[in-house]
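May I ask for a sample protein chain and its fold as tokens?
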Amino acid sequence: MAWNLENDRPIYAQIVEKIQFQIVSGMYKAGDKLPSVRELAAIAGVNPNTMQKAFSELERSGLIVTQRTSGRIVTENEEMIDKIKKEMAKEQIERFLEKMRELGFEKKEILEFLENNQEEG
């Protein structure tokens, strides 16, 4: 099944985010081998060149590493993975807070709302 990618942003950037998410969430662990460009392109429903561009970006960031004999693997630097996880979480919080402010909530109201609804989630 193809990945659900949007047309409002570059596809390769969305793929980078998706693979980052898969790594920080534990789907791919530190040291795990990633599927080939062609395999992932087929899974995602994108051109292999687009997937290659995303992989290049992930390599540039250091999140994945190319090993000549065994393909691409997730970095074994767990501190880097944790740092990226925290950055992604911070982005989600910022988006949430922005939407809540657009709805008219003040900081205190947002905190109360979260406190009152944490049991439901």
Remarks:
- Residues 78-102 form the longest helix (25 residues).
- The longest strand covers residues 64-67.
- Residues 79-117 form one domain.
